[in-house]
């Protein structure tokens, strides 16, 4: 049973529960009208302590499409935290009004802390560099919809792998499905953290490789997950200049890829995917956005006990 549960990190859900949420999302995709009133009378509190466009609006759209209501804020400066109120007290107050809370906070561990004081389910909508589990559900649903399953893939993750919470969550989730392999494409300064490599991949004998240039690996990849290489992460600007163009996906690099490769991106993008790629049928990042809404609809319905 998912009713009343918190979702702080991907491992809070079993593989069976992830599949259950994805199956419900697929039912909603096929027949959204049948689900338009299932959460009528329920309230989602969207508490966004740092900027967000897609995630916040996706949660709000999800609840509204289920027939529920939304309250909350998109700017922490307008809340009582500016007066010194603790997160614990904010959560105690808001959870007295709402049936479920989606919270984004720049501090790692904030979602877990909130779950200790909430009277209703907490959904982690991103806590610093830690986890972003509903983006992971979005990614899994997208892969499942476009490739037919979540097993037997070569997944390439490209860009900022050190600080990217979306890639940390995705590796954690996909490593639980059989016969997936990973390719980590990044500058040395932004490689996948050791705790992901040691505690998740090597501990389970999951195959992975590391390389610095996208061209070295793109021909072998089934699913390419792009992220932004951030100039501010480099100590040496010359290293950034040397490497930055290696992580821009354009039509020339796409020519090296498989005809059925899927390109994903958590968005927002800056320049890491050239606009010319948008017209390629393998570009799925805008489909991914819509699947995210359906994944959150399914999750909200499950955690609130509406379905």
Radius of gyration: 19 Å
Strand order of the largest sheet: 7-6-5-8-9
- Biggest pleated-sheet summary: 5 strands, parallel
N-to-C SSE series? HEHEHEHEHEHEHEEHHEH
Structural class: alpha/beta
Low-confidence runs (pLDDT<50, min 5 residues)? none
How many beta-strand runs? 9
Count up the helices.
Answer: 10
* Beta-strand percentage range: 5-15%
- Distance between the first and last residues' Cα: 10 Å
**Looking at the structure, what is the overall shape?**
globular
What is the average of the pLDDT values? 93
State the share of residues found in helices, binned by percent. Answer: 25-40%
Oligomer: single chain
Q: Can you walk me through this structure?
A:
This protein has a five-stranded parallel β-sheet with strand order 7-6-5-8-9, covered by helices on one side. A four-stranded parallel β-sheet has the order 2-1-3-4, with helices on both faces. Helix 1 (about 15-30) packs across helix 5 (about 135-145), helix 1 crosses helix 10 (about 285-305) and helix 2 (about 55-65) packs across helix 10. The chain has about 300 residues and is an alpha/beta fold. The longest helix has 19 residues, at about 285-305. The chain contains ten helices and nine strands. The model has no long low-confidence stretch (mean pLDDT about 95).
In short:
It is built from 10 helices and 9 strands. It is an alpha/beta fold and 307 residues long.
